[in-house]
Amino acid sequence: MWAPGIVHHGTRRRRAAYRRVVWSGAEVLVTVGVVLLLLVAHQLWWTNRQARQDAEHKVQALEREWGTAGTPGAAGAAPGGDDSGSGSASGSGSGAGTGDGGQDGKNGAGASTGTASSRGASSDSARTTPRWSQAYAVLGIPRLSLRVPVAEGVSKADVLNKGYVGHYKGTQQPGQAGNFALAGHRNTHGEPFRYLPRLRRGDTITVETRSAVYTYVVDRTLPQTSPSDGGVIRPVPRSIVRPSYGYSEPGYYITLTTCTPDYTSRYRMAVWGKLTAMRPR
């Protein structure tokens, strides 16, 4: 006869088995959580640390190779005059939306000076086409305290994940007529373009090569577009997705592209500038 308070051995065994299953499941969840935390730490901290160190060493190596002592913003000391191209270069979506970034601009006096002075260096760039993934220039953005190598191509493994900025194959080289277009990570792997939205119209961008230092001035910003919007890197850059952003006349342009918003590759943003000066080494 069954009496209250008596637990059969089968019931105890089932309860013990249940506790073991719950405990094992909890251990698995904790292990998975720790692994995920380590992966996040690796992506957000270690890849940045390693890529930044590699990029800094490459900049120093290029400077030694060129026989110069690089100083942040030094190339920006060669202003080219007034750039009268109209357009908004707000780094945020709201700023670009309220500005006149969609209007077509004319090359001003500064741009003309840079254009004329860059022709000799343009032929030099054409004669020395960089090898794939070769670092051959240094991009400097004083507002962002950034000095980073520029390498040929936009391969993640060979260029971008090293903390470098990549040059879009098929676009022009520094100082050449057309569009010198670059891409860089915004998050992880050195994230050189982490603060690209902070750029404003009038900020300077320098590109140093073995033979010359080119100074561009930020002119406009496209805050958001599709990753497949190839118009932003055409010789005369103009968005295909948002045609009110861009240019309609040939010139000497630079384009900086990166993913947006943070921690996603759903969209792209672009910052455009115009060449204003060239200083031979």
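the 2nd protein, sequnce then structure:
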Amino acid sequence: MKEVEIHIDFSCPFSNMGGERFIQYLESKDLPLSTVRFRSVQLNPDKDNENINFILNMSNKFNKSVEETIKIYENITQRASELGLKFDAEKIVDVNSKNAHIGLQYVTMFGKQAEYFRRMMSARFERGEDYSKISFIENVIKDLGLDSKDFSSKLEELTEKVSEDIKLAQERNIRGVPTFVQDGKILPLESSSTFEEFDNIIK
């Protein structure tokens, strides 16, 4: 199978579900996880990390009560559980995702993007870790058997790669995540697409 790119943001629960579903699809076909190439997108690039209460922020953003917002995320949590994912909206720390993307750019050079994706998404949505901290990302990189000091020495270069991905998403006119792309062509797939749909659409 040719490489499939998925434009994602680590702050997005649907990116989590879409990326996980595709990883599980690759595993079901005994295909290498390096077949997927995650591309960086930031839905809220100006997030200042001042107000980090996720439920309250989402409530304000969508002009809904806290109770209504919790119910919305209960529905998302149920959908995620079908993939074996655990969401705990009340634990989520609402912080800027840029540094998580910087880490993604580094691990991609070593074919570890799927493993990193899973660890970072679990850190955010299940355990409520502050994944914006470089020290946290260094530990994830170390756990993947990579050189965290080498990562830290390349932050400027990796930040530029994040910007290049974001520019690519703009050029492709990508308006939401996850967005699946193959051979530069946007595929009619989404976070809830089935394995059968992957089979029918992906080359």
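The domain at 4-201 is CATH 3.40.30.10 (Glutaredoxin). The mean pLDDT is 96.
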